[in-house]
Amino acid sequence: METLQLLADGFAGALTLENLMWVVVGCLLGTAVGVMPGLGSSMAVALLLPVTFALEPTAAFIMFSGVYFGGLFGDSTMGILMNTPGQASAIASTFEGHKMALNGRAAQALATAAIGAFIGGFIASIVVVFMAPLLADFSTRFGPAEFFALAVFAFAATSSVVTDNAVKGLASLFIGLGIAVVGVDGVSGAPRFTLDSPFLFDGISLVTVTVAILALGEVIYVACLERHVQGGNLIKPTGRPWLSRKDLREAAPAWARGTAIGLPFGVVPAGGSEIPTFLAYGLEKKLDGRRKKPMFGKGAIRGLAAPEAAGNSTTGMAMGALLALGLPISATAAIMLAAFRQYGLQPGPLLFERSPDLVWALLASFFIAMVILLILNLPFAMLWAKLLLIPRPYLYAGITMFCALGIYASSGSVFDLLMLLGIGLVGFLMRAVDFPLAPLIIGMVLGPLAETSLRDAAMSANGDFSVLVQGPISLTLYGLLALVLVFAVLNRVLARVRRTREVEAEEPVNV
């Protein structure tokens, strides 16, 4: 009952005219950015980070959550209509969703995606409301050794498990850790990697890094290496975006299974919603193979419903993990964690005690955002698709100007603008050689936590580093990490064996 009372207080705070306006703004921005291929919620949050410090924390985070959820809604729109998913999390939805569109069922495909995302996000929000306080209470058992183990788990999972190339993932992680240690050491007072420049004594701003890597780097990459074809591939939905009873009976079990698959991944630092969406799609494909008339490959509605529900349920649970544990599972969540710190807030049990108004208003805003996004996406999907008509040069020129104005407004330093350009070039090079960006962001965000926890644990044990592997929570986290790594290695070995056999089977036999 106490939780319901707190949630009711949260709705009272979220439904004020000002906060409701920011929910709508966040949903609009998130959907608009998600529709544009190559952009995403992480870029939108990074761009908004410098200019939201004038807002109250509650309003800012309500808007960020709207952007986060809205990005997923918009991603699937382009995947269905153009076979061009906005982000990797929408790839699984394109397989059957685009085939539905080609079969003249684009309106029904968009409705399936919107309802699936709504169901996944709404159920995840309910789970978060009741689970987040329990996770926060559990995190009170965490000491320096446990937080260090949690950071190591996040580092290893996001850099070696999710990425196709573990070496590139680890390299990206170490770049982020290297950026994080620049500046004056808080314990010894000694400057580290500053090149004797007073501009670097305070370190490199996380806001500058996120905007440069995610936004400016993407702009440079598109300008130099990509050529986008405008128009010609857009499929116009015909008919009403409603599902028949037969469609609902077909999609409902897939929505439920997708939601169930996505929920646990919201508290596992496995890179976001990419893995659960593919798992949900794979499960539906296996189940479809047992039917008398398999539909996969022809526009199966289950192949679209399950990934959409899985992606949004993962995102909803990720917000709970961020609030209760301070654990980011994706680049967007890592940027939001950075935003909490910019406001002087630390997610975890103390956040629920010190800022309950903010926490419960934010949790209540999840439900409001789901309803608003359903209203925005169910009947107006084609309106969002018209954003593709914006010429690319104008779009990316505007993003570049917004990057520079945001950084200069937040710091007032020309040096930060030069740093923005330099790190933006690093982001461009990482994209050009296919280095993942999420490990860099998570390494920079969690790097200070790992360093501080390591020092505190060692000093509390008089320099005995064995304290890091003595507690039950630490051992459990390291054990889970070992299992995850073994499972990932086995999957890759089996995939390589399958590819080798397929190549051998295709080769002609010499007589």
UniProtKB/TrEMBL annotation:
This is Tripartite tricarboxylate transporter permease. The chain crosses the membrane at residues 20-39, 46-69, 109-135, 147-163, 169-187, 199-223, 317-340, 360-382, 394-421, 467-490. InterPro entries: DUF112_TM. It comes from Leucobacter tardus. The keyword DNA damage does not apply. Residues 20-442 form the DUF112 domain. Keywords: Membrane, Transmembrane, Transmembrane helix. It comes from the Bacteria.
